[in-house]
Amino acid sequence: MAAWQTEEGGYQHQQSTRPLTLAPALTDSPAGLPAWIMEKYRAWSDCGGDLSARFSDDFLLTQVSLYWFTGTISTSFRPSYEYAHDLTRRVRRVDVPTALALFPADLSRPPRSWAERTYHLTRYTRMPRGGHFAAHEEPGLLADDITEFFRDHRSPSLPVRNSGA
């Protein structure tokens, strides 16, 4: 965790302490916003430093456009600030069955014992590849894991439907 904080934690510190300094700069800069977002996709994905290995230019420009045209980069910083200043209630315990899929290039990969302290963990999967943007990077792996999680928790009285796909 300390190594990650030193190498990658600058964004979190800035968003947690001075989000209203960073937000106007990114909201007003057609070069700054894409640089900020592209850097997160590069650092948090399983791309080996080459964005084009995982993401098309159209996809990345769409992500930037969503923030640019809606002016919402500022609100995306709020959770970091609120959590750091105890404005968000901490989760003490989740008693519903919970699954955790760990992708090797994600921001954190907590050990099972850590997750079990807070969650009623019934599925813990270490994925072979993927990162923070797993739904785009590895949609098949993620979908299969979600399917298996719900298969384990399906009511025995419900019929299993096979789409034939």
What would you say this structure looks like, in words?
The chain has 165 residues and is mainly alpha-helical. It has helices spanning 2-8, 10-17, 19-27, 32-44, 57-70, 73-84, 112-118, 134-137, 139-152; strands spanning 94-102, 119-126. Helix 2 (10-17) crosses helix 6 (73-84) and helix 4 (32-44) packs across helix 5 (57-70). It starts with a helix and ends in a 13-residue tail after the last helix.
Write the layout of secondary structure elements.
Elements: H1 2-8, H2 10-17, H3 19-27, H4 32-44, H5 57-70, H6 73-84, E1 94-102, H7 112-118, E2 119-126, H8 134-137, H9 139-152
Parallel strand pairs: 1-2
Helix pairs in contact: 2-6, 3-6, 4-5
Q: Summed up, what is this model?
A:
This protein is mostly helical. Helix content is 53%, strand content 10%.
Salient structural properties:
mainly alpha, 53% helix, 9 helices, 2 strands, single chain, 165 residues, two-stranded parallel ribbon
Q: Give the helix proportion (percent range).
A: 40-55%
Percent of sequence in beta strands? 5-15%
Distance between the termini: 42 Å
**Largest sheet strand order:** 1-2
**pLDDT averaged residue by residue:** 91
Low-confidence stretches: none
Round the Cα radius of gyration to an integer and report it.
Answer: 19 Å
In this structure, how is the largest beta sheet organized?
Answer: 2 strands, parallel
User: Can you write the helix and strand succession as a string?
Assistant: HHHHHHEHEHH
- Give the overall silhouette: globular
Number of continuous helical runs: 9
